[in-house]
Amino acid sequence: MSRSKYQISPELDALIRAAYRGPLEETPWQSFLNDFREAVNGNYATLILRPPREGDAGVVLNAIVMSPHIFNSYNDTYFSMDPFVNLPSGEVFTVSEFVGEEEFFNSDYYREYITPSDVRHIMGADLVGPDGLTARLRITRPKARENFGEADKALCRQLLPHLEQAIELHSRILRTESERAFYEDAIDKLSMGVVILDRKAKVLRKNQAADRLLQEKRGLQQVAGTLQVGDSQENRAFRACLEEVMEAHRQFKPGFVRAFRVADSGSMTGLGLLVRPLPPIEGSDGSSNPTAAILVSDPYQPRQAPSDILIELFGFTPAESKLALRLVNGLTLDEASEELGISRNTAKSHLSSVFSKTGVARQTQLIQLILNSVATFGGDS
Fold first, then answer.
1. Residue 275 forms beta bridges with which residues?
2. 331 and 238 assigned to the same domain
3. Is residue 184 one of the residues assigned to a domain?
4. Full domain range(s) for residue 281
5. Which residues form the HTH luxR-type domain (predicted)?
6. How far is CA 7 from CA 12, 143, 163, 173, in A?
7. Are the beta carbons of 134 and 128 closer than 8 angstroms?
8. Is 334 contained in some domain?
9. pLDDT-based confidence at residue 297 (cuts at 50, 70, 90)
10. Which parts of the chain fold into alpha helices (H)?
11. Are 121 and 95 in contact (CB under 8 A)?
């Protein structure tokens, strides 16, 4: 069997590569839109990932932006007048085929928006994925050039399956990033610092809680991109601990965990560290770069919970919510009443009401109830 039918030209290969590289670009698909525009002798190229609608500018990517005014005017006004929409998924049309030249050239959309942009001809395709993904690809030519032909449409049809897959990958990346940000924020709310290290203790990633601890230099600090733990003796012991964890990583033992405590000038108990390997991710050559997660607990970091969340969860009044939060953060009833500027008797009355609404009888039970609830995930108080 001849292999020639599987061969593609270097030019087409470059366009396909640009389509898949699109999700990784700072402004997605800029290279692809520019390359495709040039390939079909167009003057503008646009990829709409989320069509504009009332109150939502959508996600509109342009290879060349004519002017901010023209760009914004489509998103703000003319999107609702655009007749070249809702094309059959995966098919390629010119605007003259889909709308009709007479209807299109006589429309307010053409006269008010298209003509000032030096556009006469438009070729486009819509993509509708199984998970609700909707995208629109549009390429234009000026009046001085002829309309798009069958060769242009054929090239577009060849690229559409690749572009659709690339957009789906982009969507999955965004969802994963969104979930990661959510989980990272949840861990921050628990005052739990997380640092991701390589085998040489180089800091690859850290969350806000960890960054705060590193900036305070309370037993932990980042020096030349590397995590330093305590004094030189403690740091050597930590490196030995990290090497144990990395060895467990290489032996595919994700459940291997080591604990480590480092002196902290801000407390008598010090900072507790938990070191565990992350699941190995193999490269294409079968190798893997061992990484470990360092979980850092700061027992003196105040817990935050919005008053309105405590009100909704437990039926507290605003005053009761403020008192309960201070008790959770370790203040005594006298200290809390002084900080709130109320008398001790008023504080006792609030506390009695809090006990009644939560069904607990002691402050320790109240603290445990609130800390184990979802209140601390609600944001800053």
1. 258, 294
2. no
3. no
4. 190-297
5. 313-370
6. 10, 35, 19, 30
7. yes
8. yes
9. confident
10. 10-21, 30-39, 68-76, 95-98, 101-105, 108-109, 150-189, 208-216, 232-250, 307-314, 318-328, 333-340, 344-358, 363-371
11. yes
Alpha helices, DSSP H, located in 220-302? 232-250
Give me the number of domains the chain comprises: 3
Q: How far is CA 234 from CA 228, 262, 275, 312, in A?
A: 9, 7, 15, 46
Tens digit of each residue's pLDDT (9 = 90 or more) over 190-232: 677 889 998 889 999 888 888 888 888 878 899 999 999 988 9
CATH of the domain at 236: 3.30.450.20
**C-beta atoms surrounding 259 within 10 Å:** 11
Residues 162 and 105 in one domain: yes
Q: DSSP letter string over 170-238? A: HHHHHHHHHHHHHHHHHHHHTTEEEEEEETT-BEEEE-HHHHHHHHHTSSEEEETTEEEESSHHHHHHH
Mean pLDDT of the chain: 84
What is the reported pTM?
A: 0.65
Q: Which residue, of 271, 297, 323, is where some domain finishes?
A: 297
